[in-house]
Amino acid sequence: MQMKKFAPLQRCVSMACRYSGHLPSPHYDVIVVGGGHAGTEAAAAAARLGAETLLVTQKISTIGALSCNPSLGGVGKGHLVKEVDALDGLCGRAGDWAGIHFSILNRRKGPAVWGPRAQLDRQRYREFIQSELSNIPKLTLLEGAVDELLVTEENAQKPGRHRVTGIRLANQIQPLSASSVVLTTGTFLSGSLFVGRTTSPGGRIGDAPSSSGLSHTLRETLGLKMGRLRTGTPPRILKDSVDFSQAKLHPPDSHPAPFSFLNTQTHCKVEDQLPCFLTYTTPSVEQVVHDSLHLNCHIQEDAKGPRYCPSIESRVLRFPGRSHQVWLEPEGLTSDLVYPQGLSMTMPPDMQLRLIREIPALHRAEIHTPGYGVQYDFVCPTQLSPSLQVKSTRGLFLAGQINGTTGYEEAAAQGLWAGVNAARSALSMPPVALSRTESYIGVLIDDLVSRGVTEPYRMFTSRAEFRTSLRPDNADLRLTLKGFEEVGCVSALRYEQAVKVRDQLQDGLAVLEALSLSAYKWRQKLPNIHMSENKNLVMTGIAVLQYNQVSFEMLASVFPQHLLPYQEYSQRLKIESVYRLHCDEQKREIERIQKEEHMALPQDIDYLSLPASLSQEVREILDRIRPTTLGAASRLQGMTPAAIVHLLSYVKTIGQKEKRKKKSYV
Ligand code: FAD
After folding, report:
1. Considering only the top CATH level, what class is 599-665?
2. Closest CA to 251 of 232, 227, 230, 278
3. Cα–chain center distance at 15
């Protein structure tokens, strides 16, 4: 395993520059505000591109803190972690170091939608991130709260357009100047915490909110449209007080798969990993929720909460009479606490205790820290360009929860991309974008900037139209090469490794393609596999690997001299073979769209009555704008590549019908 040697926490803190009247430099290429999941990736990426970077955050000790669940990845989110890693980001390697329970979710479905996930040791995760940051050249860490964002009018002739010039720290007169600023203030922007009927200012328990000065500049000076969202976290429970005998044991995977393409194994050995447990709510839980509703401010607020990670109050109110899953998850290898996933709540602490004791495994549970809710400002992300720069303010980039997303992975992905573009802008390089056809990061950013958010946005595989090509296993081939050759955020070491993998996979697939025999002969070689093909049909090794029951190892035992050299890539070759037809078809679709860019769209199409394969939203956009060419349609806000494929097929079909009609008249 090529895991970097771990430097202890003390080293990181001593290397960090604490503000003491004289700053290390009055000007930076990039200043990143916030040391959460977006901020750390942004700062690391900007520095990797060679920009002099300053990361300013309220508390250096909370850099890399996991505010809510100590876990990383999952369905859709695991794709983001793999992509961040492929672009040389931190979170994948941190997850491999800190993981204490690894599992692949969604295994019953195809590998394109598997969700790599790990339960983490909170402290180890934080230490890894802090240690990594302290070792990145050109990156300085500074503890302090940013009070003000400094901007100037870009051009007196064009009011409303601004340029960022730097930041000012709380209680400091001297500003810090920067060519680019990345704001990643998470849940802290005008944050308020809620427990029961008590509300207090805060970004997270134990942390003050971001100053109102920052919100004021965004809203009043820059005129940005902003909104308010909310989220919450469950109480933490003392492990000794849980009756695990009343919950179902869920062991980790027997072969833990690392997130990072640089690692061949996880740091925690499988025998040392901890189990999770599953239990369920009872009807009495519902009663406690109803009894406490009048004591619960958060649940009565208008701000939208996360639909896919709702509080127990929202679940009970939305689905009355149902029993809800509660996962009991470890908080760390030596932690005394358990995280009850599914029990996010904001009722008063005494009611929280009453509620959890209505759950079988928690009948004598003790609460260590009560659950609470947080409400915060976000910036409507349609005001950003695909580089995550605010359209109206040159040099200002936003990433993470401030853009209306929820989750560490979504934040990390945006942070990395904002950091890349902030550095490129500061170094006078053109911006770079990732498309929906090449990455989940592209899907995430496109969704944010073209559709905006009405509730906290989280990633799902269903959001990606080209998901058979955008798999967790091939994120390195999709992004590492581009990251090195075009973007500049990937190290030579990682690039060389990805090139080697690409070459080996190409060679292995060529060998499989060349193993071409009749179905009859394949049946003789693999007698236990039922093949329905005509006996004379010629099949390649790739076609045979597409059978569920056929593994690469089976083929390698039949053709050892051909295939054993590729044994190391057995799983990847199997997955590549399974998806080859789909991916080729998708590639052709993408090329078809590019070729038909100038195709004229008939102006009399009744878009509103087009088939349901086009969403109502897309049909309405087309009806309203009536683009003249396919290329113009593809550039409309809210249009997806899949919608363009459907539109192309539709227009071609009506074109063919017209032609046939004309012929029949002749
Ligand atoms: P954060 O991780 O919040 O980091 C923001 C950083 O900015 C902090 O380090 C802060 O100190 C710093 N900062 C803020 N303002 C300033 C300033 N003015 N000057 C200097 N530094 C500043 N996600 C889920 O997916 N599911 C959940 O159920 C869920 N529940 C949550 C519950 C709670 C109570 C909280 C607080 C968060 C929850 N999250 C949840 C969200 C998850 O924590 C975030 O999505 C993720 O941490 C966002 O990363 P970020 O980098 O945008 O911001």
Report:
1. mainly alpha
2. 278
3. 30
User: For residue 231, which of 212, 203, 210 has the smallest C-alpha distance?
Assistant: 203
Structure tokens at 496: 């060389």
Task: Give distance in angstroms: CA of 184 to centre of ligand 1.
Answer: 9
Ligand 1 binding pocket mutation candidate from 188, 190, 199, 457 (most atoms within 8 A of CB): 188
Going by CA atoms, what residue is nearest to atom 26 of ligand 1?
A: 407
Which of 196, 216, 179, 189 has the alpha carbon at shortest distance from 52? 179
> Interior CA angle at 403 toward 134 and 391, to 5°?
100
| pLDDT number for residue 302 | 66
Highest mean pLDDT among 10-19, 84-93, 518-527, 618-627: 84-93
Return the structure tokens found at 36: 């959460």
- Name the residue of 18, 31, 68 to mutate for ligand 1: max ligand atoms within 8 A of Cβ: 68
Q: pLDDT higher for 587 or 478?
A: 478
| Residue 550 banded pLDDT, cuts 50, 70, 90 | very high
pLDDT at 332 over 90: yes
CA angle 192, 205, 371 (to 5 degrees): 90
- Does residue 17 surpass a pLDDT of 60? no
Lookup result for tokens 């802290």: 188
CA dihedral 280, 284, 285, 288 (to 10 degrees): -170
Torsion angle, CA of 295/297/299/305, rounded to 10 degrees? -150
Q: 526: alpha, beta or left, given left = phi > 0 and alpha = psi -120 to 50?
A: beta
Distance CA 644, CA 631 (A): 9
C-alpha 601/C-alpha 603 separation (Å) is: 6
Q: How far apart are CA 441 and CA 261, in angstroms?
A: 17
> Residues 189-192: contacts with CB within 8 Å, 24+ apart?
189/214, 189/215, 189/376, 189/377, 189/378, 189/402, 190/215, 190/376, 190/377, 191/374, 191/375, 191/376, 192/374, 192/375, 192/376
pLDDT single digits (tens) 104-137 = 999 989 999 999 999 999 999 999 999 999 999 9
Residue ranges of the domains in the chain? 26-230+376-480, 236-372, 515-588, 599-665
Q: Is the CB of 185 under 6 A from ligand 1?
A: yes
How far apart CA 548 and CA 615 sit, in angstroms, is: 33
Buried residues in 347-370 as b, exposed as e (16+ CB within 10 A) = bbbebbbbbbbbbebbeebebeeb
Whether residue 412 is predicted with pLDDT greater than 50 in this model: the reply is yes
pLDDT at residue 662, as a whole number? 61
Number of H helices, E strands in the chain: 23, 24
Class of domain 236-372 as given by CATH: mainly beta
From the list 554, 642, 564, 643, the residue with the least C-alpha distance to 607 is: 643
Ligand 1 center to residue 594 CA distance, Å?
Answer: 39
Distance CA 61, CA 518 (A): 64
Q: Where are the alpha helices (DSSP H) in 515-569?
A: 519-525, 541-545, 552-558, 560-563
- Which band of pLDDT confidence, cut at 50, 70 and 90, is reported for residue 658? low
**Which superfamily is assigned to 26-230+376-480 in CATH?**
FAD/NAD(P)-binding domain (3.50.50.60)
Q: What is the C-alpha to C-alpha distance for residues 238 and 235, in angstroms, rounded to an integer? A: 10
Predicted confidence at residue 604, as pLDDT, reads 85
Give yes or no for residue 274 having a pLDDT over 70. yes
List C-alpha distances in Å: 476 to 261, 303, 483. 7, 38, 9
Distance CA 116, CA 74 (A): 5
Nearest one of 316, 299, 304 to 373, comparing CA atoms: 299
Beta carbon of 400 within 6 Å of any ligand 1 atom = yes
**Ligand 1 mean position, distance from CA 338 (Å):** 21
